[in-house]
Specification:
Length: 80
């Protein structure tokens, strides 16, 4: 199964995430198929950027977003 999930980047205690499409069997920060956006929780308010075309393409292809990614997609208006 293909999942849309967050990949942790950044330093200790200063997380920065990339929203990626990856195989469900690969590790959280391991191999991924494509990067579709970013999420920065350390800013106030939290900032996120999502490539809308790529997100819609992967959702149409059957990729399942995790809870955190689904919340971000809902805030951007990509997913209901």
């Amino acid at each position: 199964m293909v999942k849309m999930r967050l990949r942790r980047m950044g330093q200790k205690k200063a997380p920065f995430y990339r929203i990626v499409v990856s195989d469900a069997r690969s590790p959280r920060d391991g191999r991924f198929i494509e990067e579709i956006g970013t999420y920065d929780p350390s800013t106030e308010p939290s900032t996120y950027h999502v490539n809308e075309e790529l997100a819609k393409k992967w959702l149409a292809a059957g990729a399942q977003p995790t809870e955190a990614v689904a919340k971000i997609l809902k805030q951007t208006g990509i997913q209901k």
